[in-house]
Design brief:
Number of strands: 8
Number of helices: 7
Order of helices and strands: EHEEEEEEHHEHHHH
Shape: globular
Helix content: 25-40%
Radius of gyration: 17 Å
Largest sheet: 4 strands, mixed
């Protein structure tokens, strides 16, 4: 981000947030701010389910659909948190199937600054929440966002063709 840029790290899990703070301790004051909330479409609360210890992904906590079992944490629409005058060039979301909800809470920021978006795609997480992955992808495309796949994922052409969505999701289940 360079010396004049900034990083806002948003982390819903209080335990992981404490680790982020510990990682910054002892370093010179810098341009990293940590916000301990879940990113969503609106302010409120959500329940997170912690990934089992030893599951191989300590960041695999998920927002639970409805009022499931887990830890209640505050949620914010990031449009309401970000300084509307501060340029945003890049947004990375890895929220285990909750990315589209966070994007809904970033609509003003995205419309104003047109940042590059790097968004995780987790079929299992979306389905576990009872959401239709095709509808989520169709929503991204309806916003006019260019959808590309990183290596070892469905091809960019597959993701762009609505007619091939069924094949993408069958092949993507590997």
């Amino acid at each position: 981000v360079g010396p004049t840029g900034g990083v806002l790290a948003v982390e819903a899990d209080p335990t992981t947030c404490a680790v982020l703070h510990a990682n910054l301790r002892g370093r010179p004051p810098g341009n990293v701010e940590i916000l301990n909330v879940a990113a969503g479409a609106a302010a409120g609360e959500v329940v997170i389910d912690r990934a089992p210890a030893g599951a191989g992904n300590p960041g695999g906590n998920r927002v639970v659909a409805g009022d499931g079992a887990g830890e209640r944490v505050p949620m914010a629409a990031l449009d309401d948190v970000l300084d509307p005058e501060a340029p945003v060039a890049f947004i990375k979301l890895d929220i285990e199937g909750y990315e589209h909800h966070a994007l809904a809470g970033l609509r003003r920021t995205i419309a104003r600054w047109r940042p590059t978006l790097l968004v995780e795609w987790s079929l299992d997480a979306l389905r576990a929440r009872g959401e239709d992955p095709r509808a989520v992808l169709a929503g991204y495309l309806a916003h006019g966002w260019a959808v590309s796949a990183l290596p070892d994922a469905a091809t960019e052409a597959d993701l762009r063709r609505h007619a091939d969505l069924d094949r993408v999701f069958v092949d993507g289940d590997r």
